[in-house]
Write a structure and sequence with these properties.
Largest sheet: 7 strands, parallel
Oligomer: single chain
Shape: globular
Strand order of the largest sheet: 3-4-2-5-6-1-7
Radius of gyration: 27 Å
Structural class: alpha/beta
Length: 611
Amino acid sequence: MSTEPLELLRTVYGYDSFRGDQEAVIRHALDGGDALVLMPTGAGKSLCYQLPAMLRAGVGVVVSPLIALMHDQVGALRQLGVRAAYLNSTLQPAEAAETERQVANGQLDLLYVAPERALVPRFLDLLDRSQLALVAIDEAHCVSQWGHDFRPDYLQLAALRDRYPQVPHLALTATADVRTRGEIVERLHLRNARSFVGDFDRPNIRYTVVPKNGPRQQLLAFLQERHPDDSGIVYCLSRRNTEQVAEFLQSEGFNAAAYHAGLEADQRRATQDRFLNEEAMVVVATIAFGMGIDKPDVRFVAHLDVPKSIEAYYQETGRAGRRSARRCLDDLRAKDAMTLRQMLARSEASDEQKLIAQRKLDVLLGFCETVECRRRLMLAHLGQELAEPCGNCDTCFDEVETFDGTTAAQKALSAVARTGQRFGAGHLTDLLLGELTERMEKYGHDRLPTFGVGTELDRKQWRSVFRQLVANGLLDVDSDGYNTLQFTARSLPVLRGEQAIRLRKDPVHKKTKRKRSGERGTMTSGVANVGTFTSSSDVTLWEALRQLRTQLAQQQNVPPYVIFHDRTLHALVESRPASLDEMSQVHGIGKAKLQHYGDAVLECIRQQAQG
């Protein structure tokens, strides 16, 4: 095998050049150095440990938190002719024993394991008897209690660094703020590690946040108008909601399924396999779905409930940004934040962890309610400065209209104060609008000076005011189960008129005419996925290559994108190679894929040329 990284990149992966810090990380690892690697989803983190593992003597051990990720990457590596395997609970004893034999005999380049298996005596004994090339800890943010996806099993992984100091150790993640990075280095004992921090900006992703106003119909309009035949992910907070939204989309003619931890393992696996293998599918899921899924044709991510943090939002939306332009639609309502606070209060996390999560939620709410460029705010939280507004988020496309909200804020805060900080936004809104409800009379609030003083705004506008006051830290939501609004240290200056405040006007959304079930638009999936072909012959060849890819994938029992990414199919349509030599120059076609699939692809191109 070649000893030159660039040559190996070309012959195995079919790529002509490295991206970003890839080559620097690879050469650093080849020299035996430890590294902390931060690269966004789709930027090629896996190459940073795969290539050194192939170039160094011994096996590269990759600690990965998800079985799906192991299966996905090992399947893709084997398609490239790389000697790769995994050890996890899906293997039969005989299969696991054969993999262990291959490791001990030096017959593997890469071995994927789960964090809980990586430290059991049997596995450590196997590594002691084997030659190690490196140790890579993927999704390394899971080690951080300050991070958004803390996993206790990761805390023990420093033992690998202590036990095998002679080999390079790499910690890799797509998401980590400055504090989390420091915690990764400390907890994994990578004190002399070099940090490689890539560009977090995902300019191909369009961020849009809208107030909830019939979220299912909003989602339906979004899919019908922009993604009628595309794959995507819809995130919800509760298991019940994932099932209800999936059933709703199915009734509207979409290929949709629910995914959450409460489903049987076989059902979850089947849904994930469908998502990986089918060209157009919508998965409605909790956050348990998506991490490590290397599906390049995810065209959108929608959140029907607010995520838990900026980091979680960034990572989840990044699953729709691996190749070409993507869109993300996100809904927000104050109730989502209250639900998250209640879930947090009921959790078994430590007080410190709860405080961390609360702060992260506050930052996210500020992101949702900002009138500035969303991308700039998000990148700033991740430690990166964006000099100019991005031009690819809703606040950049449509200038946010604001108003002097000082008087409205004072009325809202006065309502909170006069009711003893013991009621939620719904009752307070009734108070300001002068609604004589049974509850209003029960507590005598109809006799308060604030009763009916807010009729200049309607119910939706007052809901927006309360939401923004919470997001801006002027009110807090008690996690007592009743969502009562309470003062913060910032409340009094506004209430006393000592500080002015501007609030955003929520956009007015026109109702979209509901299409009948099964009416999903006329755009074909091929054109929707690529969007750049101008001739009918190009579209015809594109569809023929996609069909061939599906057939080859079914024969190999792997997802279609493992055979060829969309970008490779697009390059084949543009170049229309007439020989294996010409085809070898196409992006994403290495030696193994050329040997396995070259003749079939050339025959497909010839048939289409002949009409």
